Hints:
The protein has helices at residues 2-32, 38-79, 82-114, 123-126, 129-133, 140-145, 152-158, 161-178, 183-204, 207-222, 231-257, 261-278, 285-296, 300-313, 316-332, 339-354, 363-373, 380-385, 388-413, 419-425. By secondary structure, it is an all-alpha fold.
Amino acid sequence: MTDTKKKKKLGLTTTIFIALLAGAAFGIFLCYVVPSGHVKDDILVEGILFVIGQGFIRLMKMLVVPLVFCSLVCGSMSIGDTKKLGTVGVRTLIFYLFTTALAVTIALSVGNMINPGKGLDMSAVKSNATAVQEMEATSLTDTLLNIIPDNPIGSLANGNMLQIIVFALIVGIILAKLGDRTETVGNFFSQFNDIMMEMTMMVMSLAPIGVFCLISRTFATIGFSAFIPLGKYMIGVIVALAIQCFVVYLGLLKIFTGLNPFKFIKNFFPVMAFAFSTATSNATIPLSIDTLAKKMGVSKKISSFTIPLGATINMDGTAIMQGVAVVFAAQAFGIHLTIVDYITVIGTATLASIGTAGVPSVGLVTLTMVFNSVGLPVEAIGLIMGIDRILDMTRTAVNITGDAVCTTIVAHQNKALDREIFNKSGE
């Protein structure tokens, strides 16, 4: 029985991480050792690796809408007491908004210390201006109104996550309130949620293959040379992400729960590795919920509510990228930003991150909104686009760690955290 457990653990955790490392090594090998040609470029990189990697991403996207909808309906319904649900919701929302605003502040501070845009020749950016112009900024009023679905079925069909969340929470709250009168409908959502979880586990069994292909293609395409021109910008983003993850999140975890932060990271690391490789918060929802239950002792009643919610509204990593990008663009174009401008950036980036879908590179689109708020040229985004994939992967890992920390804290406050499970899994 012990051997079986070890095999299962290897399948859920180590295999994904091994695939990530192997994919990076294979990608670098393709980039620097294998000469360019039809076989390498068209058949291997843009053929086999692209199709399998994107096929895996599509499988994960296929699960997102029904999984998030059913998880949130069941999560809000299982909490039962609408007052308790309101308390959990408010605490979660406050945590997410507070950490996002703090993340932007850290990013702006790190950006001004590193000065990533000084001495940069912006002539290279102009060539990417056309790609930037294809992005559309969303106004603040539209962002707020878009939270409310005018057609819930249309929102489900189009994958509008914020509207889906609002509708799911309303349905779940009503089911909790009506209780036995809606038992049949409640059972339907619970059973459909079980179906989606099982389907997710089936897709997840393909994760090592998908991760290998995604990482291989990324490194085969950009190698290391692409990092050099924007090295300071990358360092700024990564330093700010590290502060947010290891100082802010783990500090809050220690203060509010007293749990060992190192055990937390050890237990949650496989999920972070998976998030890094897929660069999509939504894809990690089932793995996060499962890991929090089995290794952290967090009740699924809490996590099935807070994790899908966090995957949409808690985008601290995206907010950090936007903060450093603002400093980068301002310095590169010689534009002086005032204290009021920085406060505007903090507010706009916080609101923009709430409306950011948990899919790869969407933060670049909302960055247009942040740039427009302080009058920065959007052409700077064209330069950032070249290396955003690696940073997108890193900030996704930070985003889902924030979701997990928030969930653990909220579970502790609602007496839904089993410390014995946490301590045993950390041994």
